[in-house]
Known about the structure:
- The complex is a heterodimer.
- Chain A is α+β, with helices and mostly antiparallel strands.
- Helix content of chain A is 25%, strand content 33%.
- In chain A, the strands form four sheets. A six-stranded mixed beta sheet of chain A has the order 6-7-8-3-9-10, sandwiched between helices. In chain A, strands 13, 15, 16, 17, 18 and 19 form a six-stranded mixed beta sheet that branches. In chain A, strands 2-1-4-5 form a four-stranded antiparallel beta sheet, with helices on one face.
- In chain A, helix 2 packs across helix 3 and helix 2 packs parallel to helix 4 (139-151).
- The two termini of chain A are 34 Å apart.
- By secondary structure, chain B is an all-alpha fold.
- In chain B, helix 2 (9-42) crosses helix 14 (245-272), helix 4 crosses helix 8 and helix 8 crosses helix 11.
- In chain B, 36% of the residues are buried.
- Classes of the chains: A alpha+beta, B mainly alpha.
- The A-B interface holds A 46, 49-51, 71-78, 80, 82, 84-88, 97-98, 101-102, 149-150, 152-153 and B 172-173, 175-183, 186, 190-191, 194-195.
- Residues 12, 15, 17, 35, 37-43 of chain A line the site of adenosine-5'-diphosphate.
Amino acid sequence: MSITIAGMTKHFGQTEVLRGIDLGIEKGELVSLLGPSGSGKTTLLKIIAGLEWPDSGRLAVDGRDWLGLAAQDRRIGFVFQHYALFPHMTVRDNIAFGLTVRPRAERPGNAIIAARVDELLRFLQIAHLAGRFPAQLSGGQRQRVALGRALAIEPKVLLLDEPFGALDAAIRRDLRRWLRGVHDETGSTTIFVTHDQEEAFELADRVVVMGEGRIEQIGHADVIHDHPATPFVARFMGATVELPVTLQAGRAEGAGLDLAALPRRALPDGPARLFARPGDILPIPDVSGPWTVVTRASTGAELRLVLTHPAVGEAAADVPRRTPGSAGLVPGTPVRLLLEAGTIFPAARVTPIAANPTHDLDRKEARP
Amino acid sequence: MTATATHLPGRSRRAERTLIGVAVSLSLLFVAAPLAYIFVRAFSQGWQVYAANILHPMTLHAIWLTTITAIVVVPVNVAFGIAAAWAVAKHRFPGRGILVTMIEIPFSISPIIAGICYLLLYGRQGLLGPWLRAQDIQVMFALPGIILVTMFVTAPFVAREVLPLMQAQGTEQEQAAVTLGASGWQVFRRVTLPNIKWALLYGAVLCTARAVGEFGGVSVVSGNIRGQTNTLPLHVELLFNDLNAVGAFAAASTLTLIALVALVVKAALEGKRG
Ligand SMILES: Nc1ncnc2c1ncn2[C@@H]1O[C@H](COP(=O)(O)OP(=O)(O)O)[C@@H](O)[C@H]1O
Ligand SMILES: [Mg+2]
């Protein structure tokens, strides 16, 4: 089913949680909502599910208005961040729940329900857990049960709220591939919330980046990675080094910076900001360079360098340890910086979002 | 305890023993001894006298009255407790804070004051007195008054047990049930209720024990009419004032027995309510 969201706003008390969301999702598509926590992802998902209502805006599914439809009647599969399994029911009863609560006229017979649950248990590879209670399951197993319970009602739309958030990295990777398989096989329209970029990009057809109640960018992984639409997306995508530059005829110049590798930007002349990933910055020893290496730490594969400039401040650079000449990058060495990639935004577009410390926290969390 | 013992072997061991000793002696002195004494006195003139005292029509009537009161009050308070806890824990609405406070009021008001308030409201000279008399409804000095005041006094027990549990569980399970197509009633019966059942039972046991033992409030509204409005606790006092100590203790022993049963059930539920 295709989902259309238009001009949607929502606030809780003083907090503006959604500030005008416009989003269209195609039938059968798998879309990731990516953003730091607090950006309104769960709220948007709950509105689609009918568990919250917006202050204004439109929600239509297959062209039909859904805001007037009760959650019970939307037939959505919702997987909660913390699973929300029913602790007093076995795995089998949890999965059967959606079928057993149907009105008598529509309710399948017990034998049909049992067969449907068996089929799901096999499909989700948890047949051996049928008789267990949620407390007796691992996180990954609970996740599968939660998905099985949602799939039992044969939803046309599947909504997953950070489904792998509480699991460790190896299991997450497995489940990701498995979830993609489930999506392809059921043919449902799926929206998947995460604050982990890797997860979002690997799994989704399209990624929707959200920040502070707004959609910052919609696109495919490579585009968002290479061409962030806003400083917020740039930072969220790991371009944490922010350098002042001056634009002249589309070319950027900066103190001690070698920016020849950057493409021209059709921006007005004047001051601008460059956002770059530490991995895209290569310090080159240069006796007349205005930057100085301050600290140097090795992770084995990479050298983590911190550099300083008397006027600009500090910048981080990650250099592969085996890069020729990297042995000379010891504290005290004067250098200039060669930028291999980066995005330039006009100075005025650097909004206070950039100064919000919660985003830094999330970014760290998002990169295990 | 072992940690402190290794730090200060001599002193803390002694302090520990002293504290335990004091606690045990005080419990024996103030709790166990009077309880045991009830049975000693009740049986002091033998089985037959004890049986005669229990089977005395007045005592039987008091037992019956107390039982009826509990049978009416406990289910009503279970329903009230669930409704109040549900409203407070799962919903946001204006006046929610006031409702939370209201639930607690009976705990902080002396039952005798509750009794007097009911008297002033429903009594002959009371606010609703004339209207009630016109309808030929007797509230005060009758069963309805006893039930009302007991209900008031025991109102918080169930809500207090269920509320923290409901709050801790939040609303996600209910939301999940709703997205799976469950109606409001199905959500309650199949998701909410099973999650709180032990706390509910625990609250109901506390509520029963209190309803059976309530004295102060009932004493005001019942009018202590012998053989008519005397509940078991009132009957015990009455016998005692009649200088029928053995009878009083025999009646008291039935109350004690109910309390002990409640205690055992409560202890059994303690582990389960989670
Ligand atoms: N029921 C609620 N009441 C009040 N504030 C809420 C409620 N739900 C969410 N919020 C607030 O809305 C903001 C967005 O929350 P949420 O949609 O959960 O974001 P995300 O899922 O992206 O982390 C947060 O600041 C959160 O505190
Ligand atoms: Mg969330």
